[in-house]
Amino acid sequence: MAGFDRPLKTTGRFLLVPEGGLIWRVETPFPSVTVITRSGLLQKTEGGEATRISAAKLPLLARLHEFLTGALRRDMSVLTQDFEIIREGDAGEWRLLLTPRPQNDALAKTLRAITLSGGQFLERASVERGNGDTEEIRFHDESLAKAGLSLEDQSLLNEARQ
What we know:
Mean pLDDT: 85
Helix content: 10-25%
CATH superfamily: Lipoprotein localisation LolA/LolB/LppX
Distance between the termini: 33 Å
Strand content: 35-45%
Oligomer: single chain
Structural class: alpha+beta
CATH class: Mainly Beta
Number of domains: 1
Number of helices: 4
CATH topology: outer membrane lipoprotein receptor (LolB), chain A
């Protein structure tokens, strides 16, 4: 990222709840919790006040929620609205290259490409921004949970929907 001598590395956990939202807990270097729902974004940091951004003010948040839930359902039509997709591999080892469709000028200005790869689960996501920055996310120890949400997770999703 521009302005950094070295890559900024964070570690944490995330929980993706179909139709519910995404809870991303960053553990290092700065503990925080970010919750994205169809309604918007909620971010909490240790000792700080909660930040809320309504999807009405930033429609990209609602679109991101659609992408994530569509991907969970393996509904590629959600992605093909905004991206051209190149698929490689098979169910055991796959790769998707997403590039913004030319008619989506706003997206094309902020994003060059997203590369997703994995096997049973998503293992790696690389995001190339329009300004040249690159974000790489590596996923480890993925699992499908059969149990319901914890009270804390349910509370976070409810708070983010307000």
